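Quiz preparation item.
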C-alpha cells in the first residue's frame, strides 16, 4: 500500500479526516509541506478549503525539486487547470471532490486539467481505487457531478426557507420522506459546511451563469461564522444531544 500525505486543518476540514482516516499509510499535516514531509510519499492529497492555505501548500510542493510526484487537490472554487498553472504544477495535478457520504460509501470525482498528463491521471485514479474508493472522472468544470447537483438543491431549499415558503425542518423532513433522501438538503448543507457550499455556488455562478446565485441567507450565515456541524450552528443548532 502506498503512503499518502494528506494536507488539511482539523478545525475547519474535519470532514477530510472522516473521508481519509480509513485509508492505511496516511500521514497528516496541517500546513504547507517541506521536503522531509514529502519524502517517500507516493501521493499528496491537498485538501485545504481556505485559498490562502491551498496556495501556500501548492507553491511549496512545486518548489520541492526532490519530489515530483502526483498531487490530488480539492477543488471548491476555480479549476484544476487554474490551480496547476498558477502554482507551477503543470501536468502533475488532478482536481478532486469527495462525496458528502464518503465515510459510508467512499466515492471521489477526479477532474483532469487541461495540462494534466494521462499517466498522472491514471496513477492517481489507481491510488484512490486501491484504497477502496469508487472513482468517477469528469470535466474540469465548476461543481463536478454530485457537488453541483447537491449545491443547487441546497440553494433552492435555502431560498424556500428564506422566502417563508416552509421552515427548515419541514423542508428537510419532506425531502427525507417524499424523495427518500438520507437527510434533508439543509441538514446536508450543515454537514458539508456552509462555507464549502457558498464557495461552490460562487464558482458555479461565475463559470456557468446567474441561475447559481447563492441565497443571501447562506452568505449571511457564513459571514456570521455559522458554518454547520463543525461550528455548532448552521441551519440547525448542534448541542451534545444532537441537532435542534
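Solution:
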Amino acid at each position: 500500500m502506498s503512503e499518502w500525505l494528506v494536507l488539511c486543518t482539523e478545525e475547519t476540514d474535519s470532514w477530510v479526516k472522516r473521508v481519509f482516516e480509513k485509508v492505511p499509510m496516511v500521514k497528516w499535516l496541517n500546513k504547507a509541506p517541506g521536503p522531509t514531509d514529502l519524502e517517500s510519499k507516493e501521493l499528496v492529497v491537498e485538501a485545504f478549503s481556505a485559498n490562502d492555505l491551498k496556495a501556500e501548500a501548492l507553491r511549496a510542493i512545486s518548489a520541492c525539486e526532490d519530489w515530483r510526484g502526483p498531487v490530488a487537490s480539492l477543488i471548491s472554487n476555480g479549476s484544476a487547470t487554474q490551480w496547476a498553472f498558477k502554482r507551477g504544477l503543470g501536468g502533475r495535478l488532478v482536481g478532486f471532490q469527495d462525496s458528502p457520504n464518503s465515510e459510508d460509501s467512499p466515492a471521489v470525482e477526479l477532474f483532469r486539467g487541461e495540462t494534466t498528463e494521462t499517466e498522472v491521471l491514471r496513477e492517481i485514479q489507481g491510488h484512490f481505487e486501491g484504497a477502496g474508493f469508487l472513482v468517477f472522472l469528469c470535466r474540469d468544470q465548476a461543481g463536478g457531478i454530485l457537488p453541483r447537483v447537491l449545491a443547487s438543491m441546497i440553494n433552492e431549499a435555502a431560498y424556500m426557507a428564506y422566502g417563508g415558503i416552509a421552515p427548515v425542518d419541514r423542508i428537510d423532513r419532506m425531502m427525507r420522506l417524499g424523495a427518500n433522501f438520507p437527510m434533508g438538503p439543509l441538514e446536508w448543507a450543515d454537514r458539508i459546511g456552509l462555507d464549502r457550499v457558498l464557495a461552490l455556488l460562487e464558482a458555479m455562478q461565475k463559470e456557468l451563469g446567474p441561475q447559481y446565485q447563492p441565497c443571501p441567507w447562506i452568505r449571511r450565515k457564513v459571514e456570521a461564522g455559522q458554518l454547520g456541524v463543525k461550528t455548532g450552528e448552521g441551519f440547525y443548532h448542534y448541542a451534545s444531544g444532537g441537532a435542534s
